[in-house]
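Hi there, hope your week has been kind to you so far. Do you reckon you could talk me through the fold, stretch by stretch? I've dropped the whole record in just underneath, so have a look:
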Amino acid sequence: MTLIVKKFGGTSIGDISRIKTAALRVKETYDQGHEVLVVVSAMSGFTNTISKYCADMSPMFDAREYDAVVSSGEQVTAGLMVVALQDLGVDSRSWAGWQIPIKTDGEHSNARIIDIDGTELEKRMARGEIPVVTGFQGLGPDNRITTLGRGGSDLTAVAMAATLGAERCDIYTDVPGIYKADPKIVPFAKRLQKISFEEMLEMSILGAKVLHYKSVALAMRMGVSVQVLSSFENVPGTLLVGQDYMLEKDTINGIVLSANESKITLLGVKDEPGTVAAIFSPLAGAGIEVGMIVQDVSKDGRITDVTFTVELSNLEKAEKLLTAAQPKIGFDKFIADPNVVKISVVGGAMQTNTSFAQIMFDALAEKGINIQAISTSEIKISVLVSGKFAELSVRTLHTAYGLDMVKNE
């Protein structure tokens, strides 16, 4: 027998009927002769609701108690999933992260998995039991419950698959796989049968919401086979594969839109050593990630302008930090623009075909879409454009790369 890990996200188990449907999916795999381990998220919207309870109770809440509160959602769904499986005649038992245990560091609300003891779970599965594990949580060094941050349940599933030597980790979502573009923007976008870990990692970091980048990075590092499937449609999903697959494909595998962007421009910055470090040091200290960076050429060798992006949710915080540091940095003016989006084109073909960048620039120019910033890597190009051109940019590039003509197989 081989082990299959199945992870169900919040929308997949958003109510009782959906939990019952998910349980049928689990039983189907179990009846095929596989060992099965299930990882569950909280029901859709549950974590947001109880997070707000904490904020309403006190804006300065204790992070340790916050983790105790928000981890309860997964415990509810784990128990309900077991009840559904038992009703189908399947032997099953729920497991909280601390019971296994899934050991983490002490960084509450963003903990990192240190070790998993799968001994007891292996014994249970060997005698036909299906463990249902709470995603998103673990046990810190002080024996307190910790949570793993965004994408934590995906991370739990991949980590369990790696620890137990699973044949595959199936991630069930509300979409039937990975698409070359958001099907809500491009209805005829192609669903991919396969995509490389490297391409999926880039797409996740750039804003694709199907998988969190931490889980993709862990799967790639640990050699875990991952498949993305729909909870609602019985159709083939998308399989994440190694780099060899990427190098065989002379195409673009993703056009990603990230609306959680803002642009900051500092005018009149001194063009001298140490100034750029002075700009980004307070942001790094506050945990604010900087995306694209553009520095204008200094005409007189003394004064320049620096433009960069941060997540929209961090814009207000970044402004306060940089305003406080203005005497040290020495800029003349702070300009914030929250009305921007990042459009990224991802594909292994960029390693061997230099024309893909020019196609992007020409296509956007033809539609009158001004590029405000550019960043690149070996397999992606990202541009910053005005938010009003968000969907037009995606559709334009989908056409420019010839993807409109490619149908789902």
Observations:
- The mean pLDDT is 91.
- The longest strand covers residues 254-270.
- The longest helix spans residues 16-31.
